[in-house]
Amino acid sequence: MLICYMAFSQNEIQRFQSETDGTKHRIHFNNAGASLPPNIVRDGVIDFLKEEAELGGYEIHAERADELAAVYPAIAKMLNAKSNEIAIMENATSAWNAVFQALDLKDGDEVITNQPDYASNYLAYLNHPADLKIKVIPNHKNGDPDLTALEQMITPRTKLVNITHMPTNSGLIAPAEEIGEICEKHGLFYLLDACQTAGQYPLDVKRLKCHALSATGRKYMRGPRGTGFLFVSEKKLADLKPYTIDLHSAIWTGPSTYEVRKDARKFENWEGNRANQYGLKLAVEYATEIGLDRIWERVLYLSALLRQQMAKVDGVLIHDIGSVKGGLVSFTKEGWKAQDLQNALFEKGVNVSWNGIPNTYLDMTERGLTAIVRASVHYYNTEEEVEDFVKILATL
């Protein structure tokens, strides 16, 4: 039975659509790739770039310094964190690597991760200068990670637990809060890859008990591409040595001395896209004003509706696993290659995406999948769009 979440009124949904010009032209079910930004984010970035072109990049940076700096408390408020625990990064992978590369890992140290861990994370384990032992949490039959097995995997050599909160190839939501409890109990560093959940799921770092969290701006946050952010608990900041530093993250104090910043911005570079940074601030404020709890309810409802309706289409198989499923709906259609199906839907005015084995090698091979199509919904999507999408899918 489908639960009907009344998170938003019809007037509110109409407002979200009116404030997102892209919804006038296409059905955008590629929010797990890159969401449509609200008009205020688009216009904010464009206007900032115009000012840079007219007055100069440095000059506008100085003139609007307070507005740019406001992104830190905005993200901190959304995460229930402190401003000094936030860094602005180029993307989620750079944010994640900033922490991973700062850990003091040695030969034989153990990293525990979940089966649908993202390729960029797993490649970083394999590419690390130290010879790390990688342990993967087994899943229950329904796809949830086995937390009892997780505890049994922990040894004195375990130095990091990294969890991909929602994978790139299914709607699974990992039990991040429960894993945080286990990590706290055993004194383990806990890194949460929230790339796919930031903006759809109410992330509270106090409740998650994570020491670090990485995220992107372009997906469910509805911010510009080329933006990301990082949370690092102030309790762990002093223990982490940035892999790279520059004159922003450190001060050159003498011919052979320097001092590294004490806050999370020690992981930043001096140069960055300030127009996009401003756009990220606007996107965070937009989502926070709407309310992440309400957004999450709407996403749960729309994705459940989409799965229910798609399951009625001949030849369509839903591949989502787990007891809690977010806004990403993974599927295949009999007789279609994933990329061909994406292209055919695009021609019909529908945006989706696809990925294959290299994106989540362990999970895809374990489940016997070679490629899946992703239809990912967000709160500004409508029931009518779900209905139209399913009709189009059925006629292909």
TrEMBL record:
Q: Does the keyword Lyase apply?
A: yes
User: Short name of one Pfam family for this protein?
Assistant: Aminotran_5
Q: Which Gene3D superfamilies match?
A: Aspartate Aminotransferase, domain 1, Type I PLP-dependent aspartate aminotransferase-like (Major domain)
Q: Name one GO molecular function term.
A: lyase activity
Q: Name the UniProt key words of this record, in alphabetical order.
A: Lyase, Pyridoxal phosphate
- Cofactor list: pyridoxal 5'-phosphate
- InterPro entries, sorted: Aminotrans_V_dom (IPR000192), Aminotrans_V_PyrdxlP_BS (IPR020578), PyrdxlP-dep_Trfase (IPR015424), PyrdxlP-dep_Trfase_major (IPR015421), PyrdxlP-dep_Trfase_small (IPR015422)
Transmembrane regions listed in the UniProt entry: none
Signal peptide (residue range): none
Record's superkingdom?
Bacteria
- Chloroplast listed as a keyword: no
Ranges for domain Aminotransferase class V come to: 29-389
Q: Name the protein family.
A: Belongs to the class-V pyridoxal-phosphate-dependent aminotransferase family.
Protein name per UniProt: Selenocysteine lyase/Cysteine desulfurase
Q: Which organism is it from?
A: Roseivirga pacifica
